Amino acid sequence: MIEAGTHWADGSLLAPPPWIQPHASTLPATGAWRPGDPLGQRQFMRMAVDRPFVLAGGGQLHDITVAFETWGKLSPQADNAILVCHALTGDSHAAGPADAGHAAPGWWDDLIGPGKALDTERWFVVCANVLGGCQGTSGPASPLPDRLGHYGPHFPVVTIRDIVRTQARLADALRIDRWHAVIGGSMGGMQALEWAIMYPDRVDRLVPMATCTAATAQQIAWWSTGRRAIALDPKWRDGHYYDAKPGDGPHAGLALARMISQVTFRSDDVFTDRFGREPVEPLGGTFEMWQRFEVERYLDYHGAKLSRRFDANSYLLLTKAMDLHDVGRGRGGEAAALKRISAPTLSVGINSDILYPSYQQLDLADGIEAVGGSATYVEIDSPHGHDAFLIAIDQVAAALVPFLEKPVR
Amino acid sequence: MIEAGTHWADGSLLAPPPWIQPHASTLPATGAWRPGDPLGQRQFMRMAVDRPFVLAGGGQLHDITVAFETWGKLSPQADNAILVCHALTGDSHAAGPADAGHAAPGWWDDLIGPGKALDTERWFVVCANVLGGCQGTSGPASPLPDRLGHYGPHFPVVTIRDIVRTQARLADALRIDRWHAVIGGSMGGMQALEWAIMYPDRVDRLVPMATCTAATAQQIAWWSTGRRAIALDPKWRDGHYYDAKPGDGPHAGLALARMISQVTFRSDDVFTDRFGREPVEPLGGTFEMWQRFEVERYLDYHGAKLSRRFDANSYLLLTKAMDLHDVGRGRGGEAAALKRISAPTLSVGINSDILYPSYQQLDLADGIEAVGGSATYVEIDSPHGHDAFLIAIDQVAAALVPFLEKPVR
C-alpha cells in the first residue's frame, strides 16, 4: 500500500498544472489577426473577384485578400524589388519594430532595413502573408465573404504553388514584372523555389535556405504529429472554434504542436549548452511527475507564445502545404522542374539543421547544375539548427550581399 | 466565397478520421497486464511486505510484485546468470514465441535462445518488467493492495535506481550473487549502468547500448512532448481512467506520444527508403487535410499498436524516470559515479541514432577509462537509428559474444 499522507492528497502534482494547458483563461479562441484588429504596417490587396481562384488541390476560393508589407521605394524601372517569403509561423512583418499590429519586431529585422544587408535605401523589399495563413491574408480564420461565420475547416487545402500564385498577383498589382531576387528560408524557401520554377521570367536571383525540393518522409512525420496534437485537443472541435469564448480555443493542442516542432528547429548541442539538466526548481527530496526541467519550461513558453499569435487551423493547413511540397509533382519529376529555373541560385544550408538537413540544399544545388543551371551552395556554420537562418544573420548577410550584386545576364 | 458543393458537405475529410483517435470502440482503458489475464511465461516475485520500499524520489511503496521471465538453467554455482534489461515499452518477454500472455515474440528473440548469441543452453537469462511498468510488475495500473481501485496517478515517481533495486531483490530471491553480465539498450542501458554503479560487486560485465549517463535537454524535450500528448487527451482524466468503459481510455494521447517517439527511434534515411513520399491513396485531383502519406499510416499503426498493449500512466512514469536518469546525481558527479564501476564495459553506440547519439556511448567509454576503468566502444553501423539495437542483431551479437567470453579477473 501507499503510505497514507505521503502520496495522497498531499499537494503533490498529480495532474499537470495549468502551464501545460497554457493561459486557458482569457485568450481569444484564435491568435489570428482579424478585421478590426490594429493594422500595423499591413497593406492589403484584394484579388479579382470576378473569377474563382482554382487551387492546385482542387478547391476554389473567391475574393482573396493578401496582406503584405513593403520597405524602401520601388524604382521607376521597377528593377529593385526583392521578395522575401516567410516561414510557417512568420507573417508579412519581416522588418521593422513591433507595432500596434505586431507584438514583436520583424522576423528578419536584423537583415532588412536602411544600411542593413537588404538595404531598404536601395531595395524595395516586399513580404506577403501566405494564403491559408492567419495574419491578414485569407485563411481559415477569415470571415466568410458571403455569409456569417468563418472558413474554419472548410478552407480548402492549399499548396506552396497556390501561395506563390497569390504572390504573383500581388507582384502584378505592384507593377513588379521581375524580382531582383526571391529569398526565403524553410517554408519560405519552398515558395522561393516554386517562384523560380513557375515564373522563371520573373525571378532574376533565387535564394532558398534551409529547405527542400520535396518534403521527406521524416519531415512529413514531424509535421503530422503536430497536426494530430491539434486534432487531439477537444477544444479544436474539428476546426469549429472561432465562436468559442475566450480561453476555450485549441491553445493546448497548438502549443503542443509547436513544442514538437521547436525541438526540430534547434539542436542537441544548443539545448545542452543552454538548458543542460537544470530543473526549474531544485529537485529536492521529492520528485514529482510534473516538475519541469528548464528545457520543458522553454518548450512550454514557446508553445504558449505561438498559441497567442497563431491559428490552429492555419497550422494544419500550412504544415499540410509543406508536406505536399514536391517541385517534381505534375512536371515530369524533379530534374524537369529544376530545368525550368533560369535564375542563378544561391542555395543555403545549415550544418546543424536536423529538420531540413543540409544535404537537401546541397542536392538542390547539384540538381540545378546537373540540368544546366547555375547554383552555388553555401553552408551556414552554426550550432542553432534549423532556426539559424533567423539567428546567424551575419552569415546569411555575408552570403546574400555579394550574390545580390552579381550581374545575371 | 467557397464554391457551394465543392468544400461543404461533400464528404471531404474535414475532421480527422477515426485512425487519428485509434480504435476507440472496444479497447480496455489500459493495455496493461492485469491480474487474471493469461500469465504466459511470466513468473512473479513478491517483495518483502514487512517494510516500506523507499524510493529515490521520496515516495514509498509496500507489497511490490516483480514479474520476470527466465530462460536456460542456473548452474549450481550460480555463475552463468545474465540480466537483460528492457527499454521503455518492452517487458519481461525478451525471448520466446508469442504466448497467451504476450501478443508478440520476445523483443530480443533473435538474440536469446538455444544456440543463439545469448545461448540459453549455457546461460541463465533473466528479464524483469520494470517497476512502474505495466506488464506484471507493480505500476500505476496495479490494483491497490489495501483498498479498492488502482494506483493511477498516485503511483510515486520512480527512478532508474529504484527499478534496479527491485531487480537486486529479484537476484537475491533467485540466489544470484553476481551477474556474468548485465545488458540493456536505451532505458535498459540506463538500468545496466546503474547496476554496475550501485552494485559493483554483483556485475562482472556491463553492456550498455544506445543509452546515456544522463538525459540531455533534447532527450528530456522529446519525452516531455509525449507526456504532454497524454495529458492533452481528455480521456486521460488526470490519470484516473482505469474504470473507464472500453474505448474510453487515453488511447489517442498515448498513441500520439508513441508517434512522436517513433520518429526519434528511426532515421531520415530509413524513412526515405521505406516510405518516401508515397500517399496511402493516390492524391488524385483533390487534396484533403487528412489524407495520409504512407509514413503517417506507419506512425498511426505504431501509435495504435502501443495503445493496445501499454498503459498511459506507465508511459508518463517511465519517460520521467529516463529524464531523471543522471548517474552523477548525489554521487559527486559523473566521474565519481563511473569510478564505482568495476566491471569491464562494452559500450555500444549506433551511428544513425538521433535520440541517443553515439557520442554519448563514446563519452561513456572515455569516462570509464578516464577514471581507471576498462571500457571498449563498439559502433553498430546501421541506417535504422536508435532501434538498431533491436534490429541489427548480427552486429549486437558479434560484439557481445566475444565480450561475454573474456575472463574478467
Task: Walk me through what this model shows.
The structure is a homodimer. Chain A is α/β, with parallel strands linked by helices. Chain A has one domain: Rossmann fold. Helix content of chain A is about 30%, strand content about 10%. Chain A has eleven helices and twelve strands. Chain A has an eight-stranded mixed β-sheet with strand order 1-4-8-5-9-10-11-12, sandwiched between helices. In chain A, a hairpin with a 5-residue loop joins strand 2 (about 55) and strand 3 (about 60). Mean pLDDT of chain A is about 95; it is low at about 1-10. The interface between A and B is large, with 84 and 85 residues.
Output the CATH class name of chain A.
Alpha Beta
Percent helix of chain A, as a range, is 25-40%
CATH superfamily of chain A: Alpha/Beta hydrolase fold, catalytic domain
Which two chains have the most extensive interface, and how many residues on each? A-B, 84 and 85 residues
Strand order of the largest sheet of chain A: 1-4-8-5-9-10-11-12
Biggest sheet details of chain A: 8 strands, mixed
pLDDT < 50 runs, ≥5 residues of chain A: 1-11
Strand content of chain A: 5-15%
Topology, number of strands of chain A: 12
Query: What is the end-to-end distance of chain A?
Result: 81 Å
Total helical elements of chain A = 11
What is the count of distinct domains of chain A? 1
Q: Tell me the quaternary state.
A: homodimer
Radius of gyration of chain A over all CA atoms, rounded: 22 Å
Which term fits the overall shape of chain A? globular
CATH fold-level label of chain A? Rossmann fold
